[in-house]
């Protein structure tokens, strides 16, 4: 560790006669501390201070100064009687060998045998994000990230690394922050590095939680030198990226009158999108203080994030703090403490409704369903109710009168001590504690349909989670000649406790008290509460061996024991092995001017998924009501039977990869192929009825699933000179998902349609097909006069023409032979929601103090089933302007059926290609020259402007191709893919920001 100032050493006892001074900086003007400045041919030298300054004495007639720093090219400069010499050092890409974080340690990137991707801290803060995970979108090959509800403030994210590895269990990756397993992400501004572990060689160290990949997060630490104070501040304006072209009042009246002669046009002309959408805003401010001495390293940060959503009634604010302190207590002992906490307050509005029937519509879906010829209030001053279809409140009332407030508090502490027992052997022990408390209050006033009949309804839900973790492990790390050996072994214990309570009441005298006075309700609803505990004990180990920086071996193993499982399968073993060959270090390539890096990698291993909730192997009793005499009493009935043989879902992962570097690593690329087979999938299987029980089930290990694909990453330093740089990062990945086994080999058909659609089938699980495939009728256009029309739902010109693809044989079995009729036998797979390719392209340019970043993100393929457009074409709501081209006897050359009220059938008409390319971010910044910032008394000052989601290139006619409906957790997270209904709109942002460092 370097001291702040190191004075020139006078090892040669020369008689100095002249002083030379200056500043050493990078090509973008950032001062470089710790650069060695030596007088060539002597041992006389100094190092630059924290601001890059140096001062050295010279005495010869024509001395030469040598400037050297790890990771940068060495530069020699003749003094030539100069007293001030400022120097710019360029990156030496041939010397860079960064260290990446892996489970329970770090490794040089050149020693990695598995599939690991890193994201730079500057990429994480390229634009304001609600969650640091958002910054990964499009930047890491094989990682697919999307919000579960558009641009909603505080919307959760769905992250998939190499696809979903389960059907019924969660597929979210494990997040490890500063060694705390299962932690919540800190703000992006506090993150120093983020690594994504993708294959079994990298993730098996986490055993039963590694099947879905691991995201390793390392927060910032202090640097040696004077105290550093940083301020990062930005303000963003937001707007909706897209709106649907809806009928206005006059067009709507003509449309309705074309099939309903009794319709009377209303008095208003309301664009409900204009009434509900508004300009949103984000304020994001972060202040940090950091520094270090030879013995103490500290970093303290506070962040305030405040967002006003683009939908009326939605907003969020978050305050968080982070503190890192590391102390070198003795020569052998190092201790540290990491603290993190936040408070999040959110006001939400109803979106993505599961049932949009009478009084149940959410804000977004009602924007499109509600009649445009009605206003917010009628002639009597009462809130309007829809004039067609289901009785629903108008969108303004839903957005402004519903109360949905949520407050969450989180605190996490992680302590560690690391002791060097003797050279090469160290012991580290950690203890972590995490607690979270959430209170959510809801109130539906009597002025809304859902609350009118009950006098208003209020409820409060509280939850608390507590997580403790203790990990202890030994690490032996030594080099013997050409042999490098690292051995790690340890023990882990983690316990999670969750509890909740719920209370509700109805029948309030006034709406003014909201949910704050449940005792004021005349009717108390049934309360609820619960408690669950999970314990996980583990032993883990890893061996890394390298010979001559050429041949690398990694073996990892973990044995997990979980309280989720019964005694027969409480423990499971998850091993992995990997080999790598640094071929570029072989004699036949070591002098190559073209190939600077060539490494082959291969790994195979097992990772697990606990997959079931606490007590999931036990018999399950459900509460029912029964009657004894004339009294209704509580009772219970068995609905799930115990299974002592239930075991973990296990993923068998193969990965083969190659890393290549060219021209001194100016051009780097990596390619990976993987195959992940997940076996022993957990399904709730129906059992024969007996003992008077109705529909009994048992959770069993039946089924398997395969994800396979490839990933390509290319990084190029196109131009590197003193005034101008240009770098490019590109990634693309393909994942193919296939179900290989289901219970009894039979299809599982299910529905995700909103309840008021009255559709029991929309998706299917079938062997040989991907998870989440859409299931319905093939739409062949509009029935025309004279067509040979199969008997079915519609038979008149102008109706929907659905394809007849099947019939039945004499035994009643379905066969692939048309029978002249359209019925449920003709349903088939009509779409695949899984994208074919995902990727990103990032270009960064610098010119003196200017920097420009342009980032594109894409998903190619992947169908979307748009329930919103299906509903708008059904005739019992408002409609898009597409219906202006509906079939009529005089307009037959169209694909839009005649205006009519239709059943909301699932057909290929509403399956759309979800491919898109999005200009995700453009950022232009300017850093003031060092001479200016010195006069201002600061170290660095940068201003920037940026835009997010500026352009989207897509043929999808809906709101946004990055859509998600009924995919917030449980089974739906994996099986409900590519769905759109009632989604909060995506947003376009324009940001002005400042980075200031003292």
Descriptive labels:
48% strand; globular; 10 helices; 998 residues; mainly beta; 54 strands; 5-stranded mixed beta sheet; 22-stranded antiparallel β-barrel
> What gyration radius follows from the Cα positions, in whole Å?
32 Å
What is the end-to-end distance?
21 Å
Biggest sheet layout: 22 strands, antiparallel, barrel
The helix-and-strand class reads mainly beta
Q: In total, how many beta strands?
A: 54
Tell me, rounded to a whole number, the average pLDDT.
89
Supply the number of helical segments: 10
Low-confidence stretches: 1-16
What share of residues is helical? under 10%
The fraction of residues in strands falls at over 45%
Question: What's the shape?
Answer: globular
Can you put this structure into words, describing what you see?
Residues 1-16 have low confidence and may be disordered. Helix 5 runs antiparallel to helix 6 (395-401). With 998 residues, the protein is mostly beta strands. A hairpin with a 6-residue loop joins strand 19 (296-308) and strand 20. It has a 22-stranded antiparallel barrel. It has a 5-stranded mixed beta sheet with strand order 10-15-16-13-14. The protein has a 4-stranded antiparallel beta sheet with strand order 3-2-5-6, with no helix packed on it. The chain is 6% helix and 48% strand.
């Amino acid at each position: 560790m370097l001291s702040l100032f190191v004075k020139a050493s006078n090892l040669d006892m020369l008689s100095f006669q002249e002083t030379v001074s200056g500043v050493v900086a990078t090509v973008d003007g950032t001062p470089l501390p710790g650069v060695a400045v030596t007088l060539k041919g002597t041992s006389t030298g100094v190092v630059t201070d924290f601001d890059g300054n140096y001062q050295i004495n010279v005495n010869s007639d024509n001395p030469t100064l040598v400037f050297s720093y790890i990771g940068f090219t060495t530069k020699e400069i003749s003094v030539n009687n100069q007293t001030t010499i400022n120097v710019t050092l360029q990156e030496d890409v041939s010397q860079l060998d960064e260290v990446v974080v892996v489970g329970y340690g770090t490794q040089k990137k050149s020693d990695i045998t598995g599939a690991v991707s890193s994201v730079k801290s500057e990429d994480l803060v390229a634009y304001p994000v609600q969650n640091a995970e958002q910054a990964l979108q499009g930047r890491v090959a094989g990682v697919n990230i999307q919000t579960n509800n558009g641009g909603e403030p505080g919307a959760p994210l769905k992250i998939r690394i190499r696809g979903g590895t389960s059907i019924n269990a969660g597929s979210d990756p494990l997040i490890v922050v500063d060694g705390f397993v299962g932690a919540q992400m800190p703000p992006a501004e506090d993150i120093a590095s983020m690594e994504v572990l993708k294959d079994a060689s990298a993730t098996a160290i986490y055993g039963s939680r590694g099947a879905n990949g691991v995201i390793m997060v390392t927060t910032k630490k202090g640097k040696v030198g004077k105290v550093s104070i940083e301020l990062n501040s930005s303000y963003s304006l937001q707007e909706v990226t897209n709106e649907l072209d809806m009928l206005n009042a006059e067009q709507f009246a003509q449309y309705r009158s074309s099939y309903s002669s009794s319709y009377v046009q209303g008095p208003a002309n309301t664009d409900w999108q204009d009434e509900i959408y508004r300009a949103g805003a984000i304020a994001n401010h972060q202040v940090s203080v950091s520094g270090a001495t030879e013995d103490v390293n500290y970093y303290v940060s506070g962040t305030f994030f405040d967002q006003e959503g683009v939908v009326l009634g939605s907003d969020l604010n978050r305050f968080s703090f982070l503190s890192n302190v590391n102390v070198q207590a003795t020569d052998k002992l190092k201790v540290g403490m990491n603290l993190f906490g936040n408070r999040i307050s959110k006001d939400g509005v109803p979106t993505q409704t599961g049932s949009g029937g009478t009084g149940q519509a959410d804000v977004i879906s009602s924007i499109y369903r509600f009649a445009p010829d009605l206003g917010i209030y009628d002639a009597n001053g009462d809130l309007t109710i829809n004039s067609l279809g289901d009785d629903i409140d108008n969108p303004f009332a839903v957005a402004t009168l519903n109360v949905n407030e949520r407050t969450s508090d989180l605190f996490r502490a992680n302590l560690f001590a690391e002791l060097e027992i003797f050279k090469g052997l160290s012991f580290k022990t950690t203890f972590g504690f995490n607690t979270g408390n959430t209170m959510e209050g809801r109130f539906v006033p009597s002025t809304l349909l859902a609350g009118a009949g009950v006098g208003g309804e209020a409820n409060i839900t509280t939850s608390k989670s507590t997580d403790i973790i203790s990990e202890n492990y030994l690490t032996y790390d030594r080099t013997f000649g050409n042999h490098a050996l690292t051995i790690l072994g340890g023990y882990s214990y983690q316990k999670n406790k969750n509890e909740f309570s719920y209370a509700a009441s109805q029948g309030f005298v006034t709406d003014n008290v909201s949910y704050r006075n449940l005792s004021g309700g005349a009717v108390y609803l049934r309360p609820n509460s619960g408690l669950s505990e999970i314990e996980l004990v583990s032993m883990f180990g890893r061996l890394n061996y390298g010979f001559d920086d050429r041949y690398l071996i990694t073996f990892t193993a973990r044995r997990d024991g979980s309280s989720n499982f019964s005694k027969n399968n409480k423990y499971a073993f998850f091993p992995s092995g990997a080999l790598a060959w640094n071929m570029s270090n072989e004699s036949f390539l070591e002098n190559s001017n073209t190939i600077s890096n060539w490494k082959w990698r291969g790994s195979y291993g097992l990772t697990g998924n606990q997959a079931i909730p606490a007590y999931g192997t036990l018999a399950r009793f459900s509460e029912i009501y029964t009657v004894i005499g004339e009294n209704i009493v509580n009772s219970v009935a068995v609905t799930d039977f115990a299974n002592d043989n239930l075991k973990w879902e296990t993923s068998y992962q193969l990965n083969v990869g190659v890393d290549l570097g060219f021209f001194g690593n100016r051009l780097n690329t990596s390619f990976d192929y993987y195959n992940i087979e997940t076996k022993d999938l957990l399904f709730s299987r129906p059992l024969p009825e007996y003992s008077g029980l109705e529909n009994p089930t048992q959770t069993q290990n039946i089924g398997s699933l395969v994800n396979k694909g490839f990933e390509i990453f290319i990084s190029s330093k196109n131009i590197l000179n003193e005034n101008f740089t240009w770098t490019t990062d590109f990634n693309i990945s393909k994942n193919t998902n296939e179900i290989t086994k289901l219970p009894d080999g039979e299809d599982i058909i299910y529905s995700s349609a909103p309840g008021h659609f009255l559709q029991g089938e929309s998706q299917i699980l079938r062997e040989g097909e991907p998870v989440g495939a859409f299931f319905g009728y093939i739409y062949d256009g509009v029935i025309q006069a004279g067509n040979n029309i199969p008997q079915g739902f519609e038979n008149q010109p102008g109706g929907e023409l659905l394809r007849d693809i099947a019939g039945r044989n004499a035994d009643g079995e379905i066969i692939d032979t048309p029978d002249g009729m359209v019925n449920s036998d003709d349903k088939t797979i009509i779409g695949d929601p899984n994208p074919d390719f995902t990727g990103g392209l990032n270009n960064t340019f610098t010119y003196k103090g200017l920097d420009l970043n342009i980032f594109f993100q894409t998903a190619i393929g992947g169908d979307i089933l748009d329930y919103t457009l299906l509903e708008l074409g059904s005739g019992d709501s408002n409609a898009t302007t597409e219906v202006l081209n509906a079939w009529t006897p005089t307009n037959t050359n169209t694909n839009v059926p005649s205006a009519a009220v239709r059943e909301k059938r699932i057909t290929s008409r509403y399956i759309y290609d979800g491919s898109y390319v999005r200009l995700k971010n453009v950022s232009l910044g300017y850093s003031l020259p060092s001479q200016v910032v010195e006069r201002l008394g600061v170290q660095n000052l940068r201003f920037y402007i940026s835009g997010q989601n500026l352009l989207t290139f897509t043929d999808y006619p809906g709101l946004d191709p990055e859509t998600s409906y009924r995919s917030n957790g449980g089974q739906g997270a994996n099986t409900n893919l590519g769905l759109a209904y009632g989604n909060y709109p995506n947003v376009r942002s324009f940001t002005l920001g400042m980075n200031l460092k003292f």
